[in-house]
Amino acid sequence: CWPVNPQGLTSPNQFAQWTAGGGYTFASGLHVGVSGFRGPYLDRLLQPFLASGRVADFSATGSGIDAQWARGWWSLAGEWQRFTFGLPGFVQSPSEQAAYAELKRIVTPRIYVAARATILRFPSVEDASEARIDHGAIPQRIFEFGLGFRPNNHQLLKASFKRAAFSTARGERDNVLALQLVTSVTALTRAFR
Asked: Are 139 and 166 in contact (CB under 8 A)?
């Protein structure tokens, strides 16, 4: 997790935030990590609009856990994160949860296939007047399937298909076909030889 609304050292909106994380790798190849942060995130420009309290009284909080495992030609990775944003006048502040799981199989040293599932949730929000909505934003489920080819040591060509489903009354969907060429900038002169 990274702090919300990072500022430059000379910014007047600078607030101290704490961030911590750590991980452990087991002999079996499983790596597990945790991270978190907490601190003020609103700009000082909002201070005149606050009926009570100070901008520094409203914090953003984030926590997460991730895991990776690899054995031979197979690898598995996943992550879960939760973010909450304290706002004036809210009993239940806006928050979001995100999680993904990815399975990857190396077919040859130059080719791999992968599948990934991602879920985005935005729990209910309630303000001080007891007005409540069930979702802070539209929940999403995203499924992605990809193929990667490495033509040389400096480039990777990726093709992927992404299907996103939005939890609305109409059950909307969004399909994306993407092609990417990833190249190493430090070796750009050698990449196209």
From this structure: yes
